[in-house]
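Comment thread on ticket #2218

A.B. wrote:
> Attaching the input chain for the structure job we discussed in standup.
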Amino acid sequence: MEGETVIFQPVLNVFLLALLCAPVAALAVMALIRATGRGRALWAMRLVMLLACFVMLLRPGIPGGATETLATDTDIVLVVDTTASIVAEDWDGDKPRLDGVRADVQAIVDEYPGARFALITFDATADLRMPLTTDTTALVSSLEVLRPEVTSQSRGSSIGIANQLLSGTLSNAAESSPDRSRMVFYFGDGEQTVSSAPEPFDGSAELTDAGAVLGYGTAEGGPMKLTTGGVDGSSSEYIEYEGANALSVIDEGNLEAIASDLGVEYQHRTADAALTLPEAPSTTTTYAESGTVGNVTELYWVAALVIVALLGVELTRASMLVARLRLLRAPSTSPRRRTTDGGAA
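C.D. wrote:
> Ran it. Output below, let me know if you need it in another format.
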């Protein structure tokens, strides 16, 4: 039966494993040949332990049925607001808006498996934090450690300052992979804190096949903690304005304008509403064309159990030898013989 065929998925190249184990095995065989009595049994056990380690590192297993995989042949650019207002505390009660951004990015990663992701952040300037990559673990980790700009260095920001960087990123993606589709997701509150009008994103519209503008915040507004350059990135104190906590209020009009420029939908995000995501372009979503993933039942644990059992024997034997040595080294407690004149003999 095909399902009963044992396969191997070695942790290192097989020849390298053999090179590491062969000298030790040769020494164990030589010791086994020279040993007598119990010594021969011990060296035989050690040789079996070495062979079990070798088998475990080969990672034997039994393949099961193949499963179909979903591959999204799409490049997705995430544009994230990192101004001080992104930590305004009006998400899911009194949590910072950045918590909502992180949760939504994770939902997007889950929705489009196999896609390539790029991360752009903006405050006073726009930065490409991560170029296009399929390493979603690195992407999520980058967002986990993401901190807004330092409050003391803030001089105001424009919600459209990332327009040229976004356009350039999309252009490079289109040139290098013209067959892939491109999606853009913009995360922000739409609050313009400079006197000039927001820069338009219409230069990216023709390079964007789908996506969404996601808005965070409330009309009532949320207070913002001071952000620092420290390890945790925040202070216990709040930004104040005229003797009271300054409030950041969402500007949905600005966010809808960005959505219109990009040719995508706008969606106001709240913690109690599920994120609605567009389908990836139909021509880029395929099943199994990227290969199938076999379900393998791992068997390395059998060799591991053998190793644990043999190590238990070795440890028991070592403990007995240590106890025997201690008895041999213990001082004699027998009374000393005395002479007739009362002295010790």
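A.B. wrote:
> Thanks. Noting for the ticket: The chain has seven helices and 19 strands.
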